[in-house]
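Hey, sorry to bother you again with one of my protein questions. I've been staring at a protein lately and its backbone has me curious. I owe you a coffee for this, so here goes:
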Amino acid sequence: MIEVKMPQTTDEPQESLVVFWYKSEGEHVQAGDVLVEVQTEKATFEVEAPVSGVVREIRVLRGETAPVGQVLVYIDEAFVQAPPRIRKLAKELAVDLASLRGTGPNGRITEEYVRALAPAGSRAPIEVARPDVVTDEVDILPLTPTRRTIARRMMESLQQSAQLTLTTWADVTHLAETRARLAPGVGWNSWLMRAVVVALQQHPDLNASWLEEGIQRYAHVHLGVAVDTAAGLLVPVIRDADGLSLTGLQEATTTLVETTQEGRVTSSDLTGSTFTVSNLGQYGIKFFTPVLNPPESAILGVGQVEEQVVLVAGQVHTARRLPLSLTVDHRVIDGAPAARFLQTVGRLLSEPGQLL
């Protein structure tokens, strides 16, 4: 039995949090397979299987912490080298794989060997050989810890919440004029985040999370900002965004985005958000379906500002309009309250004096 222990990733002793198990007890693993994802105060990393075998006992469960050197899991090396197809065949023919010694390459048990040892009268369908896949036509890109974390969190988000997306246009014609006149150095995103913060104070149901025992409302707005990095999507958090002015939000966002893109962000910077803003406007996107960032119950997607011809009181005008896509957890928020929140955001953006 092989012990897989919590590794030491820094010079100082520390405890690490078990974030996610990729393997379950009883599951077969190959040497090099990722077993578990763990998180320290500064980074997330993966622990791989040192040998091939069977996962026998997981000692530290997801959500628990463990010090360096503590056993995370036991792996039993005494397992049969046979692919799933051969295991299925052996079961159909009532052949005990554990009693066999592999005669194939690398000690593997072959189909011919299993059929030869089957009890008289046992039958199983003979599979027609399929042509091998031309492996030189594809690339297999190794999964980084960040990619695995994104994949896990997005799957959990879609599987564990009832997501609904609403879209609308916000008229930002006056905002464009106000920016140019009063705050040319403040970007569109800062105005938008300020509008979100003010709107959340008026619609606190969207600054909340679903719990089995009830809906948890947050007293303050901790704003998540979706940032595209070389490692993948990260969502650093602006703490107490409801206490920041427009220029304060601009400064906090600039610093946080730079820190994140330079790889200097810490795990504490990436947790604790209560609402997230995701802006894809720079890529020419209009509307999209942002996925909730658990445990949040709402996320706002922002598209590219567009100049449009509109009809107002029978008169043709040009207007600058901003596409907004709001995804909510329908367990927490119904469609009408979500729509009212979007209306408030749109009104604040069209009357930017309220955001100064």
The chain has three domains: 2-79, 84-127, 146-355. The first strand starts at residue 2 and ends at 5. The domain at 146-355 is CATH 3.30.559.10 (Chloramphenicol Acetyltransferase). Helices lie at 84-92, 111-116, 145-159, 173-182, 188-202, 246-261, 335-350.
